[in-house]
């Protein structure tokens, strides 16, 4: 009998080609494609209720308020200017592929319509699942070629696709960055495996280049490729590790360049860390353990967790985390010894490698559920293949029970996938609105001040300002020095007419974040509402100086200029805004109005002449006072009194003007007339008290 040539490694053939199973009959292929079709349909069904979910969290400053994504002409700029990524300076990282995709979605949807953004994200999610299937099958075939690998790979892909933790990324539009990075890494590895003849041209690196331009963690591809080559093409022979490293050099060079580009092109204002590095690092093994727990029991998913830093290495959770990660790494290196177990090792090392960027680089939060998206690609491969080996061992030990074991495995697999699919459906419901999302956070993460604050914002959005304030006060217990919380507390108090407390919170927010434009903008908006236009103008100017590309302060200041009749200032600001964004329609409209605008005093005089009502004369009287024309103020108020003799506010204006002219007796007389008509008129009380005090002072 003629012997089949072995494809196992030998000293002369250290990196054999990927093995493939023998011929498969047409019925088996047809059955597989039917299963694949059912799986695709199941994925659509699980995510069917997510397409109209709203924007959330960081979507506000990267999508909703980001005017740069509204013009496709800005796409080249995305690759050189990270300030276009976000309206918030601290969040301006270099992710040009993400910004470009958002601009395309904005164009397709003719605006910030969530549906089009979700369709785009979901399409690439399906692409990733297809690529994962190819990668899984080729890795499994390289160690044990058999047709069953297509079903094992399909189950692994479906477990990933229907895992509720993945819904955290698919629903969170701006976190498509994780998706694009993962697609880039998987696609590059698939190209490397499937097209060995093209390796010398380096084409397999193109997807990871694109992925790294979406999010920096994609650069770990070089390490993942090294592990793949060492385990499956160099047969995990340590004397061949150097050869594997040499073959990985192109990937290391490209990924190194991409890493440097991410650092150099990220805006200098970017700030990721808000805690000491040591506190962050000692918590990461425990965080990774929690991620692994979520793979099996995704019951505690939260859009914003409340895990707090640990006090030191002696904390039991820290020790438990380090022990768990050590055991997992020991398991990985033990699995390297036997070729059949190497997919387990590869998946575990993928998990650690993909987690490294968010574990080593200090970020604002210790953990985020969307960070599981990339690492779970490897972890699911490990667990699925380990389970498959256990099942295979059981069948070999109990050949007479093989059919029953297979049936039990099928039933269990279907039940698990249905259960996880239901979990995806439920997470989609949680992500439907801001209120549903942050209410879930208050339940899952009750000690998260930001979560409590954001839920309070949803209450304020539907008119429950007192309920919102209650949540803001609860949030302050956990985040007492949070500038955004101070701003929102001030806004709620302003709505409730608690103006003194409101202004105090605005000022504290400005002290806590002196370089941030947000406190200035919202304080200026409040000042405008209080009729303190001059102060509002100065505050909005400060906001623009701190963040010149944020449009909200510009729009508000242009509105104030227009209302105040300051045509020159309006024209200059509109022109400056158009230099920044030439196609901005609001700035164009303000620029056009600056040519025809009338000063408010002139407009008030014309209105009073054309429509001589008591109210118009009173308004004219007030504007004369603001302009320092106090006798004209008195004359206009007297005209209002001729039309409306019991007009307390008109008498008060006369009192105020006489005060300015230091006619204390006339001021006192007018203020008393106002109070006889309206005893509760506080302005008249103030004017009377002031005039009387000044008269006494003069008398002395």
Strand content: under 5%
The helical percent reads 55-70%
Q: Termini distance? A: 130 Å
Count of individual helical segments: 33
- Largest sheet properties: none
Content-based structural category? mainly alpha
Shape: elongated
Report mean pLDDT, rounded to a whole number.
92
The radius of gyration over CA amounts to: 33 Å
Q: Residue ranges: pLDDT <50 for 5 or more in a row?
A: 1-15
The total count of strands amounts to: 0
Q: How many structural domains does the protein architecture include?
A: 2
Q: What is the secondary structure topology, with strand pairs?
A:
Layout: H1 26-46, H2 59-64, H3 75-78, H4 96-109, H5 114-143, H6 148-161, H7 164-171, H8 176-194, H9 206-212, H10 221-233, H11 241-247, H12 249-265, H13 277-296, H14 316-336, H15 342-360, H16 376-397, H17 402-430, H18 434-444, H19 449-461, H20 465-478, H21 483-495, H22 499-512, H23 517-529, H24 533-546, H25 551-564, H26 567-580, H27 585-594, H28 600-610, H29 614-626, H30 630-643, H31 648-660, H32 664-677, H33 682-699
Helix pairs in contact: 1-6, 1-17, 4-5, 5-6, 5-8, 6-16, 7-17, 8-9, 10-11, 10-12, 10-15, 13-14, 14-15, 15-16, 16-17, 18-19, 19-20, 20-21, 21-22, 21-23, 22-23, 23-24, 24-25, 25-26, 25-27, 26-27, 28-29, 29-30, 29-31, 30-31, 31-32, 31-33, 32-33
């Amino acid at each position: 009998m003629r012997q089949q040539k072995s494809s196992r490694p030998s000293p002369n053939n250290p990196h054999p080609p990927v093995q493939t199973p023998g011929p498969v009959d047409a019925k088996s292929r047809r059955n597989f494609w039917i299963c694949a079709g059912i799986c695709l349909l199941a994925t659509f069904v699980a995510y069917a209720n997510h397409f109209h979910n709203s924007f959330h969290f960081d979507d506000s400053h990267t999508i909703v308020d980001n005017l740069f994504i509204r013009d496709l002409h800005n796409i080249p700029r995305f690759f050189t200017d990270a300030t276009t990524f976000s309206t918030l300076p601290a969040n301006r990282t270099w992710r040009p592929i993400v910004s470009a995709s958002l601009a395309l979605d904005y164009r397709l949807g003719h605006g910030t319509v969530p549906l089009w953004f979700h369709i785009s994200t979901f399409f690439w999610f399906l692409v990733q699942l297809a690529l994962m299937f190819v990668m899984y099958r080729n890795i499994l075939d390289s160690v044990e070629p058999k047709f069953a690998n297509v079903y094992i790979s399909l189950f692994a892909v479906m477990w990933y696709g229907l895992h509720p933790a993945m819904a955290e990324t698919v629903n969170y539009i701006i976190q498509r960055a994780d998706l694009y990075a993962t697609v880039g890494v998987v696609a590059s590895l698939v190209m490397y495996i499937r097209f060995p003849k093209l390796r010398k041209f380096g084409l397999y690196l193109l997807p990871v280049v694109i992925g790294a331009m979406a999010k920096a963690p994609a650069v770990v591809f070089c390490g993942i490729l090294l592990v793949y080559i060492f385990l499956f093409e160099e047969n995990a022979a340590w004397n061949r590790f150097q050869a594997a490293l040499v073959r990985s050099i192109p990937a290391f060079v490209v990924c190194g360049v991409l890493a440097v580009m991410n650092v150099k092109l990220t805006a200098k204002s970017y700030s990721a860390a808000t805690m000491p590095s040591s506190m962050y690092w000692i918590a990461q093994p425990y965080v990774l353990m929690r991620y692994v727990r979520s793979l099996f029991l995704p019951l505690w998913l939260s859009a914003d967790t409340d895990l707090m830093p640990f006090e030191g290495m002696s904390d039991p959770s820290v020790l438990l985390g380090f022990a768990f990660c050590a055991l997992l790494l020991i398991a990985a290196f033990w699995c390297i010894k036997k070729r059949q177990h190497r997919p387990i090792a590869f998946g575990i090392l993928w998990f650690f490698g993909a987690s490294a960027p968010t574990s080593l680089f200090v970020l604002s939060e210790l953990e985020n559920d969307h960070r599981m998206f990339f690492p779970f690609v490897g972890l699911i491969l490990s667990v699925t293949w380990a389970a498959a080996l256990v099942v295979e061992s059981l069948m070999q030990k109990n050949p007479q029970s093989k059919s029953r074991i297979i049936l039990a495995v099928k039933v269990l697999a279907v039940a698990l996938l249905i259960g996880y699919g239901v979990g995806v459906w439920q997470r989609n419901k949680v992500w439907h609105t801001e209120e549903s999302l942050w209410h879930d956070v208050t339940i899952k993460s009750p000690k998260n001040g930001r979560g409590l604050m954001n839920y309070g914002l949803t209450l304020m959005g539907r008119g429950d300002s007192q309920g919102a304030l209650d949540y803001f006060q609860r949030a302050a217990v956990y985040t007492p020095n949070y500038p955004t919380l101070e701003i929102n507390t001030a806004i709620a108090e302003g709505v409730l007419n608690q103006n003194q407390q409101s202004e105090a919170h605005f000022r504290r927010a400005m002290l806590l974040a002196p370089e941030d434009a947000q406190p200035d903008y919202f304080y200026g908006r409040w000042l405008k509402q209080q009729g303190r236009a001059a102060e509002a103008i100065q505050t909005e100017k400060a906001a623009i100086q701190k963040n010149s590309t944020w449009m909200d302060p510009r729009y508000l200041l242009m509105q104030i200029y227009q209302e105040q009749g300051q045509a020159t200032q309006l024209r200059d600001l509109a022109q400056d805004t158009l230099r920044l964004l030439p196609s901005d329609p609001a700035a164009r409209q303000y620029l056009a109005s600056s040519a025809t605008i009338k000063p408010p005093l002139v407009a008030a005089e014309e209105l009073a002449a054309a429509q001589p009502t008591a109210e118009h004369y009173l308004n004219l009287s007030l504007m004369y006072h603001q302009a320092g024309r106090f006798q004209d103020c008195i004359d206009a108020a007297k005209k209002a009194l001729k039309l409306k003799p019991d007009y307390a506010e008109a008498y008060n204006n006369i009192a105020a003007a006489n005060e300015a002219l230091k006619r204390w007796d006339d001021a006192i007389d007018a203020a008393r007339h106002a109070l006889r008509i309206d005893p509760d008129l506080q302005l008249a009380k103030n004017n009377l008290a002031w005039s009387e005090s000044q008269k006494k002072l003069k008398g002395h």
